[in-house]
Structures are given as structure tokens and as C-alpha cells.
């Protein structure tokens, strides 16, 4: 496949991602060893290829969910050890899942994505078998400079935890004041600390699920179990009902305080905080960019900006060491970061207000996704480079 064909496929894949994955049914996924999980996923990809070759896929939505669940069964083991390969898998898997959920299937694009995904999973399987290419946690842990960076990052996370509570207090006060515009602005502002340290927050899955779950995980918008940020988002931006948001705002503030306490009791090790860059950028460029998470508020660019800021905080702390080991990689990260920031600031202002992402033309959404990906690609090389 030549470079032009690759670019055309990736452009089509980006369009599929931006189209969104649609509603999925939440299922409990049984965790399995990487070797077992990757073998099962390869089998499914081979079976899907046979169907794509005949331009007839049986129950494509079910196939999409199968691939999603198989990857979820072992992806957490891949993230810290093989961040580059994790990024590569997500790069092809996310649009493949989205494409299988479209009303009309684009067989040529899906076939190319399936082939590329199979190559990425095969590369992962080979790396595991040869015990080659994994991040060397011992090297990172032994580094005096990276230990100091981890101490600084712990302080950053604690500060974000405090800002989270302060933002939720402001949101709660705005909701209780009855001022819709102020409440909407406070909603957007309160999201920022949460998104900057998302990989840390996700470690507390029960609280994270209560605070940040989307409506897709529930029966509908009125499900009593549907609480947190996105229930408030729905009430403020769709129903425009400040009064009804009061109880959910109070609950979110209490949960935010619990999250802040949980964060305060956590010590993040050097290898763990460095691995967080990949998770933040994967969130931004493949999931947040669809606009689904902030579907009612349109605050997609602010939450992506917060993910980028969180990744930048990690990069800034290790940049000196990275430059010693690979100056060219450091320069590439620095330049692509500046490009992403400039693009985001052009599309939506920094501050309390934002431009609704759904009203930004798709060509500009695609351009932002491409620039986020161009930033993420060198960034996920950082953990491996620092561990050499």
C-alpha cells in the first residue's frame, strides 16, 4: 500500500470516528492474559476479513461489540508496557468499530482498517513472544531525575484535585443561584481539572463511573442511576432546567470531595505517570474528538484542551531527560504540541465560553483530529525512549 492510499484510508477512517460509535450496551468484560486475548482477537479479525471480502457482514454491530470487548479484555496490560503499539491498535480499532455501526458499510475502508489492525495485533503478539520493545520500568524507576519529576507530578495531581472541588463548588453555587448561563459556564470550567488528570481518576473506577458516566451506560436520560456531570449537562443544555439540576449538583460535589480525598492518598510512581501521556492523548484524539462525550454542551474542545494540558504537564517534567536521550523526538513533540494548541485556540477561545463543536465544520474537526494524532504519535514513544 503506497502513502497516498494510506492517507486516503486514514481520512476515511477519521470521518467514521467523527460519525461516532452510536449507543452500545454495557457489558462486563472478563480480563484475560494478553497472549490469550490477542489470539482471540486475531481469530475474530480473520473471520471478519472473510465476510468483508464477500461484501456481506453478518450483524456488523454485534461484530463491532465483539472486537471492542475482546480488546477491553487485555488492553490494560498493553497500555503501560507497549504504549506505541497500544496507540497503533486504537488508531485502527476505533474507526473499525465505528464503521461497523454505520447504516451503510464502507467495505473498502473497513477491509483496510481490518488488515491494518491485524498487522498491529500481530506485531504486539510478536513483541510479547520475543519479550522485545516493552517499556523498561526498572530503568525509569532507577532514574534520579525521573523520580524528582514524579514527585513534581504528584504535586500537580494534588493541585488538580483541589481545583476539581473548587470548580464543583462553583458549579453547585451557580446551579442553586438559578442563573442558567452562569451554571452552563461553570459546568465547562469544572470539567477541566477532571480531564487533565483523567488516567489517575480512572483508577478509582467506581467514583469515576458515578461522576462521569455517559447516558449510553443507562436506560435513558431519566434513569435514576444516571447522575454526575452528564446528567447535569443534559439538564442545563437540553432541558435548561436549573432547578432540577440542584440535587445532581449537590451529589456531584460530594463525590468530587471523595475523589479529591482518594487522589490525596495516592502516590504515583515514575513509570505510571509517564505512561499517562498515551492514555490522555488516546482519549483526546480517538474518543473525545467524536463529540459524543459533550454531545449536549458542545464543550468538546475545552475537554480535549484539558487532556492536552495534562499530557503537556507530564512532557514538561521529563523534557530535559528526553532531550538527552532523543533530541529529535523532543523537537517533534514540542512542534506538534504548539500546532495542536494553536489549532484548538483558533477553533474555540480559552476561558469560560466555548464554540459548540457540533457547529464547527467537519473539515476543521478532521484537521484537529489529524493534528492531535500527529502530536500523540511521537508522544507515545516517550516512555520507551526514557526507559532505554
Automatic annotation (TrEMBL):
Keywords carried by this UniProt record: Signal
Pfam entry (one): Peptidase_M75
Stretch forming the signal peptide: 1-19
Record domain Imelysin-like: where: 152-368
CDD domains hit by this protein: Imelysin-like_EfeO (cd14656)
InterPro entries reported for this sequence: EfeM/EfeO_iron_uptake (IPR050894), Imelysin-like (IPR018976), Imelysin-like_EfeO/Algp7 (IPR034981), Imelysin_sf (IPR038352)
Places the protein is found: Cell envelope
Main location, first listed in the record: other
Highest taxon above the source species: Bacteria
Gene3D superfamilies reported for this sequence: M75 peptidase, HXXE motif (1.20.1420.20)
Family classification: Belongs to the EfeM/EfeO family.
Name of the featured protein: Imelysin-like domain-containing protein
Species this chain originates from: Paenibacillus germinis
Organism taxonomic ancestry: Bacteria, Bacillati, Bacillota, Bacilli, Bacillales
Amino acid at each position: 500500500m503506497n502513502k497516498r492510499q494510506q492517507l486516503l484510508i486514514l481520512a476515511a477512517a477519521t470521518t467514521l470516528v467523527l460519525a461516532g460509535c452510536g449507543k452500545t450496551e454495557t457489558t462486563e468484560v472478563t480480563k484475560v492474559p494478553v497472549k490469550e486475548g490477542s489470539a482471540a482477537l486475531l481469530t475474530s479479525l480473520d473471520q471478519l476479513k472473510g465476510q468483508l471480502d464477500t461484501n456481506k457482514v453478518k450483524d456488523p454491530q454485534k461484530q463491532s461489540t465483539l472486537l471492542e470487548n475482546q480488546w477491553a479484555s487485555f488492553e490494560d496490560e498493553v497500555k503501560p508496557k507497549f504504549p506505541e503499539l497500544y496507540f497503533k491498535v486504537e488508531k485502527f480499532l476505533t474507526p473499525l468499530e465505528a464503521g461497523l455501526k454505520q447504516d451503510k458499510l464502507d467495505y473498502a475502508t473497513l477491509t483496510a482498517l481490518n488488515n491494518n489492525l491485524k498487522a498491529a495485533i500481530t506485531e504486539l503478539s510478536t513483541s510479547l513472544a520475543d519479550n522485545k520493545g516493552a517499556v523498561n520500568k526498572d530503568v525509569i524507576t532507577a532514574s534520579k531525575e525521573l523520580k524528582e519529576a514524579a514527585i513534581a507530578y504528584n504535586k500537580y495531581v494534588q493541585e488538580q484535585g483541589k481545583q476539581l472541588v473548587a470548580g464543583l463548588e462553583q458549579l453547585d453555587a451557580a446551579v442553586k443561584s438559578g442563573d442558567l448561563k452562569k451554571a452552563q459556564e461553570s459546568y465547562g470550567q469544572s470539567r477541566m481539572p477532571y480531564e487533565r488528570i483523567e488516567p489517575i481518576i480512572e483508577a478509582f473506577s467506581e467514583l469515576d463511573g458515578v461522576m462521569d458516566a455517559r447516558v449510553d451506560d443507562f436506560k435513558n436520560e431519566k434513569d435514576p442511576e444516571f447522575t454526575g456531570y452528564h446528567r447535569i449537562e443534559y439538564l442545563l443544555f437540553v432541558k435548561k432546567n436549573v432547578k432540577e439540576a440542584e440535587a445532581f449538583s449537590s451529589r456531584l460535589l460530594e463525590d468530587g470531595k471523595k475523589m479529591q480525598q482518594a487522589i490525596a492518598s495516592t502516590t504515583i510512581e515514575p513509570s505510571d505517570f509517564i505512561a499517562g501521556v498515551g492514555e490522555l492523548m488516546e482519549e483526546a484524539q480517538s474518543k473525545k474528538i467524536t463529540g459524543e462525550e459533550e454531545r449536549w454542551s458542545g464543550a468538546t474542545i475545552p475537554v480535549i484542551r484539558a487532556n492536552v494540558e495534562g499530557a503537556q504537564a507530564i512532557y514538561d517534567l521529563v523534557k530535559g531527560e528526553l532531550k538527552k536521550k532523543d533530541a529529535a523526538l523532543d523537537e517533534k513533540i514540542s512542534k506538534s504540541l504548539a500546532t495542536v494548541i494553536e489549532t484548538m485556540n483558533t477553533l474555540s477561545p480559552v476561558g469560560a465560553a466555548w464554540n459548540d463543536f457540533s457547529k464547527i465544520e467537519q473539515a476543521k474537526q478532521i484537521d484537529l483530529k489529524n493534528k492531535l494524532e500527529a502530536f500523540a504519535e511521537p508522544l507515545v514513544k516517550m516512555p520507551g525512549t526514557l526507559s532505554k
